[in-house]
């Protein structure tokens, strides 16, 4: 697999990481607040492809029958995509309002915190989290919990928004470059309401370096680290301190449980 130093064989998913895909995904961000079904629908399809590719690389099999736990699964936009691939999809979400925001019903959905997952050790084949780590106060505690519930040999895939990247402030950006609290106050003055992603409460400054450091010390085999929304030829950015904080808008860490 492709490691953070650029060595190892190219993962199957790399062939999907084209410039066209990057432009499509990045263009969908403007709909995150106004048309979440459109935005999250595209992210869901891409996430399912990512998981399926790495799972096949790891096991030689497709996702049929695999238990996929989605930490921070929200209202369930990902459920249909994983069901279409034959997986048993289980979302866990701490906020009941978020769980029902889209009016979707996902069998087996669980209310619980990613920092204390209500599952036994080695319970699932794949544990994923997409764009959630920046919304919890202790993201690396969550990462350890994700590893705990993953079966030996199973996959743990963590993808999160980097604070100093262009989307780090979510709807308050790009003013987050002047500070998260300033960006939140400006958003409130401009719109008359609090941002959904409130700095210090539901949005936190997580760096690319934090994820790379966790990968180095994790009790797991790191299969790949790469910028999620970049074409394959730009994946080298994760290896450059400083530059990756600004240009790696979303970091993916793919790990195999020992």
Give a brief rundown of this model.
GO terms for molecular function: S-adenosylmethionine-dependent methyltransferase activity. With 258 residues, this protein is of the alpha/beta class.
- Beta-strand content: 15-25%
Rg, alpha carbons: 17 Å
Strand order of the largest sheet: 3-2-1-4-5-7-6
Backbone structural class: alpha/beta
- Give the uncertain stretches in residue-range form: 1-6
Tertiary shape: globular
Tell me, what is the CATH class? Answer: Alpha Beta
Order of helices and strands: HHEHEHEEHEHHEHE
CATH topology: Rossmann fold
* Beginning-to-end CA distance, first to last residue: 15 Å
InterPro entries: Methyltransf_11, SAM-dependent_MTases_sf
Keywords: Methyltransferase, Transferase
Pfam families: Methyltransf_11 (PF08241)
Domain Methyltransferase type: 69-158
Task: Give a topology summary.
Layout: H1 19-28, H2 36-59, E1 67-71, H3 79-84, E2 88-93, H4 96-99, E3 110-111, E4 124-130, H5 139-149, E5 150-161, H6 180-191, H7 208-217, E6 220-227, H8 243-247, E7 250-257
């Amino acid at each position: 697999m492709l490691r953070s130093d650029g060595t190892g064989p190219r993962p199957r998913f790399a062939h999907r990481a084209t410039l066209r895909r990057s432009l499509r995904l990045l263009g969908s961000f403007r709909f995150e607040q106004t048309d979440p079904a459109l935005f999250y629908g595209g992210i869901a399809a891409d996430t399912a492809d990512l998981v399926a590719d790495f799972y096949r690389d790891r096991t030689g099999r497709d996702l049929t029958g695999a238990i996929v736990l989605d930490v921070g699964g929200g209202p369930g936009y990902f459920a249909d995509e994983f069901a279409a691939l034959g997986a048993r999809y289980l979302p866990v979400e701490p906020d009941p309002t978020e769980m029902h925001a889209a009016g979707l019903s996902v069998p087996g959905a669980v209310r619980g915190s990613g920092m204390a997952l209500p599952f036994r050790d080695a319970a699932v084949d794949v544990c994923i989290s997409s764009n959630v780590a920046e919304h919890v106060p202790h993201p690396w505690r969550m990462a350890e919990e994700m590893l705990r519930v993953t079966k030996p040999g199973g996959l743990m895939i963590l993808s999160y928004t980097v604070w100093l990247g262009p989307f780090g402030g979510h709807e308050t950006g790009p003013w987050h470059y002047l500070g998260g609290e300033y960006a939140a106050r400006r958003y409130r003055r401009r719109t008359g309401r609090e941002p959904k992603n409130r700095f210090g409460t539901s949005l936190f400054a997580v760096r690319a370096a934090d994820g790379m450091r966790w990968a180095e010390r994790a009790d797991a085999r790191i299969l790949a680290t790469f910028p999620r929304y970049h074409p394959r030829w730009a994946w080298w950015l994760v290896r450059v301190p400083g530059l990756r904080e600004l240009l790696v808008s979303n970091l993916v860490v793919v790990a195999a449980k020992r």
